[in-house]
Amino acid sequence: MLVNTFRLALLSTTASFAAVQQRTFSALNQKSFPALVQEIKATNKDIHYLSPKDLHSLQTPTSQQQPPHVIDVRERHEVQATGTIPGAIVLPRGILERDVSKFIKQSDPRDVVVYCAGGFRSVLAAESLVRLGYGVAEGEAGDKGKKKEECPKVWSLDEGMDGWVKNGFQVDKDGKACK
User: Fold this and answer.
1) What is the pLDDT of residues 105-163, one digit of tens each?
2) Is the CB of residue 91 less than 8 Å from the CB of residue 73?
3) Ranges for the Rhodanese domain (predicted)?
4) Fewest C-beta atoms under 10 Å: which of 60, 70, 88, 135?
């Protein structure tokens, strides 16, 4: 009986020590949201960035290039308040990973542009898409036989919807295009 009591005390002490150690480790590695976004921008080379003006010009299809898929990762209340970029797929950040394949297949040859309100959450969304296999080359779970520069890319829209509106580009409200 004494041995079992000793084992229980030892296990309890070990578990407490592990919990304290985990909290200490977590505290040392905590980041702010902006710091996390900056870290992803600096380290993930599979995410590309474009301005609202660049996206606007890409949305005009040419014979050589189809317009990109555009995903709005803002929450529904944000979309209802300001509208969307015309043609955008509304997939809030909380369901993006779960539902993106319902709209865009990983083998789709078109680029994917994600945007939020100000250009920060879209970086996290772009990282998730890359981790799911969008915009990565052969040897990284991408299309076989394609070089990295031939693969579709994942883009994050700098300045997000705020930048789009600031530039005076068309906005789609309730399924109707507005300016």
Assistant:
1) 988 999 999 999 999 999 999 999 999 999 876 444 444 455 556 789 999 999 999 99
2) yes
3) 64-173
4) 60
